[in-house]
Structure formats: structure tokens, C-alpha cells
Amino acid sequence: MTKVLIHGGTLVTDREVVKRDVLIDGETIARIEPDLQVSEAERIDASGRLVLPGGVDPHTHLDLPMFDTVSSDDHYTGMKAAAFGGTTTVIDFVSQPGAGGLRRGVEALRAKADPKACVDFGFHMNITRLDDQILNEIPGLIDEGITTLKVFTAYNGRLRLPDGDIFRVLRMAGQHGMLTLLHAENGDVIDILVGEALAAGHTTPEWHARTRPAWGEVEAALRGIALAAQANAPLYIVHMNVAGELDQLRYGREQGLPIMGETCPPYLFFTLEDLKRSDGAKWVCSPPMRSAEDNAALWRGLGDGSVQVVATDHCPFFFDGTRPIEYEGQPVAIPGKELGARDFTKIPNGVPGVGDRMPILWTYGVGKGRITPQQFVGLISTNPARIFGLYPRKGALLPGSDADVVVWDPDRRFTYGVSVAQHRTDYNLYEGWELKGFPETVLLRGRRIVDHGRWLGRPGMGRYLKRQPGAPVV
Ligand code: URP
Ligand code: ZN
Ligand code: ZN
Description:
Blueprint: E1 3-7, E2 10-12, E3 17-19, E4 21-25, E5 28-33, E6 42-45, E7 50-53, E8 55-60, E9 65-66, E10 69-70, H1 77-84, E11 87-94, H2 102-113, E12 120-126, H3 132-137, E13 148-152, H4 163-175, E14 179-183, H5 187-199, H6 206-210, H7 214-231, E15 235-240, H8 243-254, E16 259-263, H9 266-269, H10 272-275, H11 292-303, E17 309-310, E18 325-327, E19 330-332, H12 357-366, H13 373-387, E20 405-415, E21 434-444, E22 447-451, E23 454-455
Parallel strand pairs: 1-6, 2-7, 8-11, 11-12, 12-13, 13-14, 14-15, 15-16, 16-17
Antiparallel strand pairs: 1-4, 2-3, 4-5, 7-20, 9-10, 18-19, 20-21, 21-22, 22-23
The structure holds N-(aminocarbonyl)-beta-alanine and zinc ion (ZN) (2 copies).
Residues 61, 183, 285-286, 313, 315, 349-350 line the site of N-(aminocarbonyl)-beta-alanine.
């Protein structure tokens, strides 16, 4: 087994910043000590560099069918982009099969992901249709390593569950140490407003946001929290984007309820104004971009610890899927946002981000003094690993943990954009932004997969992670 010594670096964990060497033996971390002397180890010089646990992104949608297309990153290209940005674990979502049991959906996604995966990965299960048989299948998902379920209060007629069914899912999950994830919007109000907007001839991207009011999220978040309280179950609110939603999360936690939540980088920067641009479709996702006040409130939530995780909801589409890009030397074009050029309801919902998350949050969070380096590590790695039943195998720099390690150059300055990010799409939300701080070397279970901009990973090397139930509330 190969030994790797990362020497001279400064370790950053969610608790401390300290000078330490890291010895990796095979796939795991063997020792963490000052000035380790080891012969016969491959050496990585981390002088002037930070050494972080690999990022854990618990919210991606790879190869996801939507409308008349599919998200443009598959389980190879999306995970490769993740790795370049310092993320070595992602958790993707299983779509519930139209007919048949939940396990069929798991098998179908494993068949797509296993041969392509190049970082480690797990799955959440979407519950979008419920009957007694499906309800009783839920605990069996733990055998598949799936301990988390996502439910929706929006996307009527497609993904939404009635409140009673959400309550039944929450209660079953809670009884078995599983965690329910909530997509909080008001599907009924959205449908009415969308119908009215189209009838009035409003077709542009800004109407995507205008027909999904922020109050719908505030109300649905509180509804979800109240349902979880009545079901005596924990809840995790995904993609929080408005101040009022965060207020509900704080309220629930103040009541002692086991409630947690995530935000995603675009909600820290972008607003309805971006959707009004001529290329506004690039920002269309659900829930939508809001206001500068919401951006600021979410930043405060990261700083004061009331938001537990920064995930991405990575769900990329081409802006113009009629024009091929070059990807690994081949032309690739996948139908994308142009599908909604004449009707905002036909714009595939989602934005790229899995590779952007860590460099963007470092520059604009740590670099601007909004969060500490320890909070950064907590938000992007340790907290999601704990919440989703992967800690201390993932999200930690500890002897025995998987050697998923990022050697981070905090001084590297560069102009970010689509040509730097490795997503398989034709645009980047942060085009032209000046960043400082980027991964230099990324190791997955002791193997270098990114090194000074070179890609050393390969499809199939990523491992499916069976996650543990009974994870703590962070
Ligand atoms: O627009 C988004 N976020 N697409 C992905 C699906 C979801 O609701 O997370
Ligand atoms: Zn969602
Ligand atoms: Zn999502």
C-alpha cells in the first residue's frame, strides 16, 4: 500500500487551524502530527498551503431528466467538476419510479452512476407518490445505505406530496433514524400565478421568480417544521433562499426541534435583477433568486451558525444547447435553457455550481471576513458529513478517516468563469469574478485525482457510500 506524506501545511478543520503533517497509508489517514519523519512515502509539499478535508456536497442532480432534456453533467462530468473544486463526496437524488418499488429507482441510478463515478457518492430518495406499500418500503432503504428522503410542497401533479403524506413520511423516517429533506414552496399558489402570467402574455425568465413568491417558501418551511414537530421527526430544509425561511428555521431550533438547513452559493449573490437580463434564463432555478436583503440575511445566517450547510443543488443545463462545446476533446451539445426562449415555464430549472462552491465561498466568505476558515470547513464538509451519516469517514481529518484531502492554495488569484470551472455546460454564473484561493491537489482515498490543474481521476473509481441512520442534529 502506498504511503503519502503531506508535510509543512496548515490543517484547517471545523474546530482549529494548526500546523500539522498528515500521513496517509493506503486509503485512510494514518497519523496527524507535527513534523512527521517518514521514509518511503510519496511526499506532497504543502508549505504555505492549507490542508482541508475533501468537500461533501449533499445536493446534486446529475443526469436528471427534466422537461424535454436532461441535466448536462452526468455522474462522470459532474463529479470531475466537483473534484476540481475540492469536493470529493456528493449525494445525488433517486427519482421515485412511476410504478414499482423504491429499490427499482435505486438500482436504476446505481446502474448509471457506478461506472461513471469519479468521487465517492451516496443517494437520497425522492418520495413523490405515497401509498401503504411505499411507506412500508422506506425503512428497507437503510439496507441500501439510503437514510434520507426528499419531499416537495411544490411541483403539483409531478413531485408534490399532500401534507398528510409528508407527515406520514416524516413519522416513518423519524421512527427509523432517517432524515427528511424538504423542498419548501407553495405549489398551489405557484400554479395559479403561472396560469395568470401566461394568460397575460408574460413569458420572460423574470416571471419564473415572480410566480413563485417568497412568502410561499416562508409558509411552506414553517408548515414542514410544524409537520416534523407533530411527527416527532427531524427535518432538513434544502436550498433556503429567503430571510423569512431562515427565520422559520431559527424559530424551530429555538423551540428545541431537530431542524437543520442549507443554502446554496447563488442565493448569496444573485437577485431578481439577474433574471431580468437578456440571458436571465441562466439564473432560472427553483426556488428562484430573491433580493439583496435576502442575500445579506443568508450571509448573516452562515456567520452566526443558523445555517448548517452550504450545498449546491447542482443541476446544470446549457444556456444554448444548440451550440456544441468541446468536452474532453469531443463536441457536446445538450438541449438546455433555449427550450424556454418563448415560455419561462419551459426553461429547465437548475444552475451549475458543484465546482464553484468551495472557491466562491472561500473568496467571498472567508476572504471578506464573513465566516472563519473553521466555519468554512464545517459548512462545506464536516456538517454535511455528520448530518448525512458519513462522519468521521468523510468530513474529517482524523486517523482512520478516508484520506479525502484538499491541499488548498489560499494565495492563488485568478479570474473565474466557464473556462476554469469544469462543469459540462456553456456558462458559469460567476463569469469574470476575481477569486483568491483554490485547490492545488485533491486526493480521493489517498489517490491524487487533481494535481496542479491536471485531471488524474477516472470513471468508476468513485465508490457508492452506504450511509448510517441515526445521524446527529448539528
Ligand atoms: O431548480 C432546481 N433546483 N432544480 C433541481 C430540483 C430541485 O428542486 O432541487
Ligand atoms: Zn428542491
Ligand atoms: Zn435540488
